[in-house]
Design brief:
Layout lengths: L14 H19 L12 E2 L9 E5 L5 E3 L4 E2 L4 H9 L7 E6 L5 H18 L4 E4 L2 E2 L2
Parallel strand pairs: 1-7, 2-5, 5-6
Antiparallel strand pairs: 2-3, 3-4
């Protein structure tokens, strides 16, 4: 009998696959640091305090007195409470609403956000907090 000496081996070389995975990992790590967390550009008031909290909802107020909840879509003042309540979702007790207001915004706009969160707290019996975001003093 004549037997063939050329046997077909079915194998895959995984060394190039691991190189590709590491390159993709490095790519996503670099691009994720380039994403800006602030969707609305603001000049925040300056402060020395260093209070940090876990953000659940972010409310932006720009220099034109436009309100934004978690995105770039403007929200009317009358609908502010509804959008904050929807963004908080299933947080039972202590959600943090971070207020990022431009430093030239009147206090009345800030009070409207605080009132909206207080109305949510009184209606649902929760203790959500409003934190004013600031930039470090130079």
């Amino acid at each position: 009998m004549i037997r063939s000496q050329n046997k077909i081996k079915i194998e895959t070389n995984s060394s190039s696959m691991s190189d590709l995975v590491f390159l993709l990992l490095i790519f996503f790590m670099i691009t994720s640091t380039l994403i800006s967390p602030n969707a609305v550009k603001l000049l925040l008031p300056e402060s020395n305090s260093k209070t940090m909290a876990r953000e659940t909802v972010t409310v932006y107020i720009d220099e034109n007195h436009n309100f934004f909840v978690n995105n770039d879509v403007p929200v009317a003042v009358s609908e502010l409470e509804y959008f904050i309540r929807e963004s908080i979702g299933t947080e039972n007790d202590a959600a943090c609403v971070t207020l990022r207001a431009n430093k030239d915004v009147p206090v009345q706009d800030v009070v409207q956000v605080i009132d909206a969160v207080n109305n949510i707290n009184s209606a649902s019996g929760t203790k959500h907090k409003v934190i004013l975001a600031t930039s470090p003093k130079k």
